[in-house]
Amino acid sequence: MKNFVEELKWRGMIHTIMPGTEEQLMKERTSAYVGIDPTADSLHIGHLVGIMMLKHFQACGHKPIALVGGATGMIGDPSMKSQERKLLDEETLRHNQEGIKAQLAKFLDFDSGEPNAALLVNNYDWMKNFSFLEFIRDIGKHITVNYMMSKDSVKQRLNNESREGMSFTEFSYQLVQGYDFFHLYQEMNCKLQMGGSDQWGNITTGTELIRRKLGGEAYALTCPLITKADGKKFGKTEKGNIWLNADYTSPYTFYQFWLNVSDEDAEKYIKIFTMLSKEVIDAAVAEHQQAPHLRSLQKLLAKEITIMVHGEQEYNKAVEASGILFGNATSEALKRLDEKTFLAVFDGVPQFNLSKDKLGGNILDILAVESKVFASKGEARKMVQANGLSINKEKFTDINGTLGAELLINGKYILVQKGKKQYFILKYE
Predict the structure, then answer these.
(1) What pLDDT does residue 220 have?
(2) Which end of the chain has the smaller Cβ count within 10 Å, N or C?
(3) Is 44 a catalytic residue?
(4) pTM of the prediction?
């Protein structure tokens, strides 16, 4: 077995580690779990650090357990939150679990039959039949209120003057999470829980419960919360989360997110979000520093993570789509784009809606009368004659020419380009 702690250290993925954790992992194959909040049917890149911890854990010979928080998702974790979560019903939670497992299977081996094959569990399965009286008698009496009040996640919420404090429901969250660790320790010999640094209080409640109730020894390891060099929250864009589900975030948009990170962030992220070795990463960083303008490190990062999440075919499509906007692409490449990728590539480009009965119309009429690509037919004529107009990435030089149905991309779009950088979309419906 490889040294998991050493692997995480050089990658910058350890924030706090309980004494004895490394010794336990070097002594024997160990099971560890990470909890995942099932508030959606897709993971987003904010989940990736925990998933990569499990992936490295399995690669080092240990057994990873992904815990979907069906029960805890019904309560809502108060850690780092200023307000309570919306509560979910069981049907929604089960649907979300299925979506999450399909994505986790891209990172973890669930089906090989190896001793360290991954497991997916849902804490709702062991919490749903627990009565309130049983819980407070068997679990609650082992953890004092003083201990629970000392946690930062609780203190932060109680000291928040803009709110009325926190509900008992949220206060009990750490006990429920602590019981998860207790249950997995007892039933699956799981001795380690991992998570973000904001989870330290919840995780150590679990180790304390195991110690007090069973006299057992369990361990905790957290990674730093990932930030961007400019101080903004990692993974959030103006349009919200970057999802792993292609229906919510296209592979092109996903690829572009990583391609556009800063040099400083690329050096940090390539260690955290890829499985590349230290030697490969060190060489890639050195190469990048010789010619930062080529963005070779960002390209390598974007390649590795896009292939891991979406596969090589989608990665190749994303690279080709990037060339359409920023390079000398052909109309054939443009027509190969599916509708979602086409719209993602030209996100923010002005669109004009036209009726399909306008197909076959004169170029000048279409661009200056039916749409407002040009302010006048005279301006449109000058641009065409000056060789400054492209339709679907091909020069258009005939002022008497027409825009016919054969030009439609995905059966409804025509791309108009004025000069080098001004794009417009004609949408025929």
Answers:
(1) 98
(2) C
(3) yes
(4) 0.86
